[in-house]
């Protein structure tokens, strides 16, 4: 193999698209941060699934970064392969040929590993997107209850508990709504694939048994009740509800944590009796508005 200008041009050309993209991306990001300013300084309430949306964006960025790094590593491996061919063709010392072979194998292996990481991040992003769509579906139903005097807050974040998907506040009470989106993956024992059974402790799906969601909803409701009671200096009871979009829920008894299809939420909330005075509701709304209003415009 002869190292001529044509060979060198082909090797260098393989790096051009990647380098141009990285340069344009860096210049655009750096320029935008200096030129652009938000049109208003007031922060916004967190939308439904805000935390999951940020997580999804980060995962997508990681997928792109891993793929770009894989391209760099594989291109460098190609250079090593070309160098190895040149060494072998000109009878270079065996040590140099071995070094080129080792570098090629290492770079190719690292490139393949980065592609695998990108695939794993892509799978995680797929699951996060499902959770995001689930929270948005539940939020869509909850906003229909505004005619019953309810105020809705989304994605309250707290270090002690992680986050609360939705909080519903009105004269009929305060409710923590945990949304759980699950894919249908067939069935076992001839059970209908669209039915989930709730026994008070866990959720029995056709192919698995969920023991985490109910305790999580109970814990979040208890924390929020203590937080509101402490801040308002009056006892506030918070009820926990788990909403599962797209599933038919069979409940084996009357349990403190309610589980239902997301479509039934509006009817459930409208059917509650009056529990709180108007002044109490206003104080709770003010606290939650301050807690959830942290999104930059």
Order of helices and strands: HHEHHEEEEEEHEEEHHE
Quaternary structure annotation? single chain
Strand order of the largest sheet: 2-3-4-8-10
Query: How many independent structural domains?
Result: 2
The profile of the biggest β sheet is:
5 strands, mixed
Structural class: alpha/beta
The shape, in one word, is elongated
Low confidence ranges: none
Averaged pLDDT: 85
Distance between the termini: 59 Å
Report Rg: 28 Å
Strand content: 15-25%
For the secondary structure, the number of strands is 11
Q: What distinguishing features does this structure have?
A:
alpha/beta; 7 helices; 4-stranded mixed β-sheet; 297 residues
Describe, in plain words, how this protein is organized in 3D.
This protein is of the alpha/beta class. The chain folds into two domains: 5-137, no CATH class; 147-295, no CATH class. The chain has helices at 5-13, 16-35, 50-89, 94-142, 213-232, 265-270, 278-292, and strands at 44-45, 151-158, 162-170, 173-179, 195-198, 203-204, 209-210, 238-243, 248-251, 258-260, 293-295. The strands form three sheets. Strands 2-3-4-8-10 form a five-stranded mixed sheet. A four-stranded mixed sheet has the order 7-6-5-9, with no helix packed on it. Strand 6 (203-204) and strand 7 (209-210) form a beta hairpin.
Task: Itemize the secondary structure elements and their pairings.
Layout: H1 5-13, H2 16-35, E1 44-45, H3 50-89, H4 94-142, E2 151-158, E3 162-170, E4 173-179, E5 195-198, E6 203-204, E7 209-210, H5 213-232, E8 238-243, E9 248-251, E10 258-260, H6 265-270, H7 278-292, E11 293-295
Parallel strand pairs: 4-8, 5-9, 8-10
Antiparallel strand pairs: 1-11, 2-3, 3-4, 5-6, 6-7
Helix pairs in contact: 3-4
């Amino acid at each position: 193999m002869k190292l001529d200008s044509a060979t060198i041009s082909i090797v260098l050309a393989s790096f051009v698209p990647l380098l141009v993209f990285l340069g344009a991306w860096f210049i655009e990001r750096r320029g935008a941060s200096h030129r652009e300013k938000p049109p208003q300084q007031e922060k916004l309430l967190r939308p439904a699934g805000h935390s999951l949306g940020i997580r999804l964006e980060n995962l997508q960025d990681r997928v792109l970064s891993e793929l770009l790094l894989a391209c760099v590593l594989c291109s460098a491996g190609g250079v090593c392969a070309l160098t190895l061919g040149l060494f072998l063709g000109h009878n270079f010392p065996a040590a140099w040929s071995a070094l080129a072979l080792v570098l090629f194998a290492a770079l190719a292996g690292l490139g393949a590993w980065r592609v695998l990481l990108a695939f794993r991040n892509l799978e995680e992003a797929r699951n996060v997107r499902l959770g995001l769509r689930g929270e948005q579906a539940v939020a869509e139903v909850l906003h229909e209850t505004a005619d019953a005097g309810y105020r809705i807050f989304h994605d309250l974040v707290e270090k002690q508990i992680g986050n609360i998907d939705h909080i519903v506040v009105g004269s009929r009470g305060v409710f923590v709504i945990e949304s759980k989106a699950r894919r249908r993956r067939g069935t076992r024992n001839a059970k209908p694939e669209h039915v989930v059974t709730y026994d008070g402790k866990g959720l029995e799906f056709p192919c698995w048994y969920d023991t985490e969601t109910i305790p999580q909803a109970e814990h979040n409701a208890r924390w929020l009740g203590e937080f509101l009671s402490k801040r308002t200096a009056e006892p506030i009871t918070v009820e926990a509800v788990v909403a599962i979009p797209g599933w038919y829920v069979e409940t084996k008894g009357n349990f403190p944590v309610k589980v239902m299809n997301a479509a039934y939420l509006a009817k459930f909330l409208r059917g509650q009796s009056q529990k709180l005075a108007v002044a109490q509701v206003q104080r709770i709304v003010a606290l939650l508005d301050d807690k959830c209003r942290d999104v930059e415009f």
